[in-house]
Amino acid sequence: MRKLRTIEMNRLTVDEFREADKLPLVVVLDDVRSMYNVGSVFRTGDAFRIEAVYLCGISATPPSTEIHKTALGAEDSVCWKYFKTAGEAVEELASVGYEIYSVEQAEGSTMLHDFVPERGKRYAVVLGNEVKGVHQEVIDMSHGCLEIPQYGTKHSMNVSVTAGIIMYAFRFCGME
């Protein structure tokens, strides 16, 4: 077994990425304070070829050295948009037919392994602040909540890790 060189991986150019079909998924970051987490979400979003990242509230926006450090240029390939609040982003997405799910531990949440996204639908997932999670008003606006089962002592995971798990689930568990 031989490790592939970058040139052998035949990755898309930024222009090819922009023209390529996307996973019908928008990731909404609700007051994510770490620019490194924001950058990581961009990089993972590029890997799974999602539609966009919506940055809300205190979430930083490109250009930023800190975002670039973890995004490694994915902030240039993945479309993004800024909103004053996540509620505004959710309103816009809902108005054009997206099904909205907050990723949160909530009464009646659906465990991620029990959720099967439907082909032909467009989805948005809202990921919350590293300490406070998704704002309750955004949860109230959502079609539901998705929860990643956890079996240890901690009650949450890093937001960028959560984003990766969620994007993987949407890419490989029903939509593609």
TrEMBL record:
Swiss-Prot/TrEMBL keywords: Methyltransferase, Transferase
Gene3D superfamilies named in the record: 3.40.1280.10
Q: Which residues form a coiled coil?
A: none
Q: Which Pfam families match?
A: SpoU_methylase (PF00588)
Q: Which GO terms describe its biological process?
A: methylation
- Organism ancestry: Bacteria, Pseudomonadati, Bacteroidota, Bacteroidia, Bacteroidales
Mind telling me what this protein is named? RNA methyltransferase
Which stretches make up the tRNA/rRNA methyltransferase SpoU type domain? 25-168
Which GO-annotated molecular functions does the record name?
Answer: methyltransferase activity
Recorded source organism is Xylanibacter rodentium
